[in-house]
Specification:
Blueprint: H1 2-13, H2 21-33, H3 39-50, H4 60-87, H5 103-122, H6 129-147, H7 155-174, H8 179-198, H9 204-227
Helix pairs in contact: 2-8, 3-4, 4-5, 5-6, 6-7, 6-9, 7-8, 7-9
């Protein structure tokens, strides 16, 4: 009887959303377009278009090369590594729905994000805000790997929290107000986090934990880069 009641309580604790199919399709679209692997590229694009004077020492070709390098290093290579793990039968799905299957992808992504941060320190002609942001996403993957031992923390929430705090702190660095941009990022963050709940990929606690981890790691990176 106790076992049965315990099972019932556990089932009740799991939040299941039976959303209509169009809503689920929209949630999947948000999850794909704002996948955490794309966040570094989106941030680079935002800085490039909002603060072009920070790239004054580069010609157009060099800027495109840097943008492509950001995409390849932070998105393509980690995604390709996950694809290879799936094809080699080391993981059952490229969606990484099981905690233990996320360990190796976390480690691989950590390496590429660390490399991106290391390169940003040596590029004197790049905006300084990229240094703290790349360090922040590296620390976020470290936090994600640690928390993954206990709970399936939301990687989407970590990514969106990272770019949200990145935009806010960048505005502080340049002493500018980008209210429209900030509003868009806040709405996008809410949409992505809600999408993860609609698709039943995470619990509310896992999403909140991802948000707090992403925020905290970016703040640490900002402190280390500009204040330490």
């Amino acid at each position: 009887m106790d076992t049965l009641m315990s099972a019932e309580n556990e089932a009740a604790a799991v939040e299941v959303y039976n959303a209509p199919q169009p809503v689920r399709l929209l949630a999947k679209l948000f999850s794909y377009l704002l996948h955490p692997l794309f966040i570094p590229t989106y941030f680079f694009l935002w800085v490039m278009f909002r603060f072009p004077y920070e790239f004054a020492g580069m010609d157009e070709h060099t800027m495109n090369v840097r943008l492509l390098g950001t995409f390849w290093t932070t998105a393509f290579f980690p995604a390709f590594a996950v694809f290879l793990l799936w094809r080699l039968k080391f993981i059952s799905s490229i969606m990484l729905r099981i905690q233990k299957e996320r360990i190796v992808p976390y480690v691989i992504t950590m390496f590429f994000y660390w490399w991106m941060w290391y390169l940003s320190k040596n590029f004197k002609d790049q905006p300084s805000v990229l240094k703290f942001f790349y360090l922040g996403i590296f620390l976020t993957t470290v936090a994600g790997l640690i928390f993954n031992n206990f709970v399936k923390i939301s990687m989407h929430a970590m990514g969106m929290a990272g770019i949200l705090v990145g935009v806010i702190l960048t505005c502080f660095v340049y002493q500018t107000h980008q209210g429209l941009d900030l509003s868009v990022v806040i709405i996008a963050t809410g949409a992505v986090c809600t999408s993860r709940l609609i698709l039943n990929d995470h619990s509310t606690g896992e999403v909140w934990l991802g948000l707090f981890a992403g925020i905290f790691c970016q703040l640490i990176a900002y402190f280390f880069t500009f204040i330490w």
